[in-house]
Amino acid sequence: MKLTENDIAVLRALADYYVLSASMVHRMVFPQRKDRRNTRRRLQRLVTAHYIARSAVEVAFSTGNAGPAYYLTAKGADALAVYFGDEAWLKTNVRPPRIDRLYHWLDISECHWIVSQAVDRAPGVKLVGWINEWQTMSDVDGNPTDYVLHTQFREGPKPLSCSPDAAFCLEVAGHQRVHYVEIDRGTTGCKRVAASKMPGYSELSSVRGHHRHFPTTTFDDFAVVLITTSANRRDILRACVSSHADLHPELWFLAAHDDVTPETALFGQVFHDHQGNVGALLQKPAANPLSINGDLVAAE
Predict the structure, then answer these.
(1) Alpha helices per DSSP H over the chain
(2) Do 4 and 41 meet the contact criterion of CB atoms below 8 Å apart?
(3) Which residues contact 32 (CB under 8 A, 6 or more apart)?
């Protein structure tokens, strides 16, 4: 099979986002096309040629339809490396996604796309990088080691670790701040979410662990962006986060899923801090200062 530029665009989207549904591939790669049949046929050809693979089970969508999720294979990563002349593509995550986490991964991919779209629409804002949960590091020999975002602080007798779903870094006027992402699907009690997640982030803050993920950050702290299923659950989670005063609740910003869109993700008043104040991840530039999560930075 000879790969076309459109085929490469599909492979690159899967390399960037890891797991996508057919409708997501169509929206992200071919937004100008109304008919999705060509996209589905293209995905089938790439599956048949083993450049991509699809999940063994289908996922149901809010529209009532169901379909598989797609991800890149080693052959697909090799094709990208050859096409772009860059062996870095060979390090792309091609692990088959766990079946029980397909919805979770699709939600992370959707969040990644929303943030990317929001940044593309915001002059003066740059997305320095995005790290997915299963992205790996390489040792001196180029072999994958541990996951980038997982930090194990201690094994026992009481284990403590921090494992964000994703992380991204925004740059405004030369200043960069790290944002960790938590996608909450509502499958765990609110008290347990706060009690299980907050100690790890608190320790990560204490050791400035975000500098390992994004060494160029100019902030001593970071933000934890939690996106949950509804406004009611957001408010309950906010109260649970606020109750842990010793675990840096000021790091947390919570929003309901439907409120976070490409139009609102950066400048929309949709994020609630632990005290119930509502704001945006970024303040729109006026004359001079800009701010990231409420911290003023100088505009150039």
Answers:
(1) 5-17, 22-29, 37-48, 74-84, 102-120, 190-206, 210-213, 231-242
(2) no
(3) none
Q: Give the whole-angstrom CA distance, residue 20 versus residue 141.
A: 31
Condensed to tens digits (0 to 9), the pLDDT of residues 200-241 reads: 999 999 999 999 999 999 999 999 999 999 999 999 999 999
Could you say which DSSP state residue 257 is in? G
The tens digit of pLDDT for each residue in 94-135 reads 988 888 888 899 999 999 999 999 999 999 999 999 998 877
3-state secondary structure of 137: strand
The fold adopted by the segment(s) 5-97 is Arc Repressor Mutant, subunit A (1.10.10)
Question: Which DSSP string do the residues of 234-291 spell out, in sequence order?
Answer: HHHHHHHHHT-GGG-GGGEEEEEGGG--TTTTTTSS-EEETTS-EE-SEEPP-SS-EE
Nearest to 165 by CA among 216, 118, 110, 119: 110
Q: What's the CA gap between 147 and 136, in Å, rounded?
A: 4
- Locate the domains of the chain by residue range: 5-97, 106-297
pTM: 0.88
